[in-house]
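Standup notes
- DV: blocked on the single-chain target, sequence here:
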Amino acid sequence: MKKTIALICVAVCMAAMAASPALAGELVLKGSTTVLPIAQRVAESYMKLHPDVKISLSGGGSSNGIKAIVDGTADIGNASRFIKSKEIKLATAKGIYPVPHRIALDCIVPVVHSKNPVSDLTTEQLKAIYLGKIRNWKEVGGADLRVVVISRDTSSGTFEVWEKLVMKKARVIPSALTVPSNGGLVQAVGTTPGAIGYIALGYLNDDIKALSVNRVPGTPETTRNGLYPISRPLFMFTNGWIKGRTADFMNYLLSKKGQQLVEEAGSIPVY
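- DV (later): unblocked, structure below
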């Protein structure tokens, strides 16, 4: 961790040497599907204020967002996790200096089919389910129904936070179904009675049921005060310190109006 922080400090010190890959009047954002709703809402609002600016957005996961910064194919890489040491080394070897910008907070919520009677699981029970040790819902107070484990793919920042905070680096059962996005997971859980998955707070809807963890619901309040055990910051990464159009967009996102848009997108404002 100290090594990672040191490398980030180097990145900030050398930021003045970095250049934005975007053309004037154009911004490209790629990466996390957790950050995507925030980026979409802020981009729509920003383009109304600046009709001469074109902003293109795409998902693909946090790893792809950081990779886009390293490859020079995006101005902003969206990530629902912090950058890894190996990613920093790869970037700096190419003369790229990733700078993190914390733009929101989030919590990861376990979800089940809307008719599942279970309402709370402990972190130990969640781990046992994803290890394949708990295979029937009746083992945790539910109906006599097989548990269908659904997870995110390994390029997802949400997966990596779940792996760290819930699985404690243990491997998810190989038979688990994997989906590439929060939206895909919501659809899979909502149409499968025995399913369980995990999503960013902003993707909750009436088609699925959120579970509390250790009897603590995932909410903005429990995330801010640290009571909810599966929470995280959300980031946007840039190559070097922001300037020009990228700086203007980021300042708008972190303004009072921008943070209101973060909340409207279902995430938790930093300020």
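- Follow-up: The first strand starts at residue 26 and ends at 31.
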